[in-house]
Specification:
Layout: E1 3-7, E2 10-13, E3 18-25, E4 33-39, E5 46-51, E6 58-60, E7 68-73, E8 78-83, E9 92-99, E10 115-116, E11 120-125
Parallel strand pairs: 2-11
Antiparallel strand pairs: 1-3, 3-8, 4-5, 4-9, 5-6, 7-8, 9-10, 9-11
């Protein structure tokens, strides 16, 4: 089993920045790819970003490309999401997730992720 715990959410003004963290425990962190997803009120959960096991490959949703950066520190069992130039439409609960399958691509399908954190709220005011 893997436990994922997100932190770093909060209230920020439009144009500001936040850095989310997701700490993992229970299984060797480096064996799974990681993703960030978000769910806004009244909307379905959507893919934000993903990172490979080594951290060498990343993939972003078009809506956050150029503004968000996903990274990981396998020595600290932690994945990060640096968010910049935040917009009110970025307001959502942000979840980190772990994908244990070995794939040749970075996964943006939430149904194929195996482990999930409890989420952290990000609110961007206009």
């Amino acid at each position: 089993q893997v436990q994922l715990v997100e932190s770093g959410g909060g209230l920020v003004q439009a144009g500001g920045s936040l850095k989310l963290s997701c700490a993992a425990s229970g299984r060797t962190f480096s064996v799974y790819a990681m993703g960030w997803f978000r769910q806004a009120p009244g909307k379905e959960r959507e893919f934000v970003a993903a990172i490979s096991r080594s951290g060498g490959n990343t993939y972003y949703a078009d809506s956050v490309k150029g503004r968000f950066t996903i990274s990981r520190d396998n020595a600290k069992n932690t994945v990060y999401l640096q968010m910049g130039s935040l917009k009110p439409e970025d307001t959502a609960v942000y979840y980190c997730a772990g994908d244990v399958a070995i794939r040749s691509y970075l996964n943006m399908n939430e149904r194929e992720y195996d482990y999930w954190g409890q989420g952290t709220q990000v609110t961007v005011s206009s």
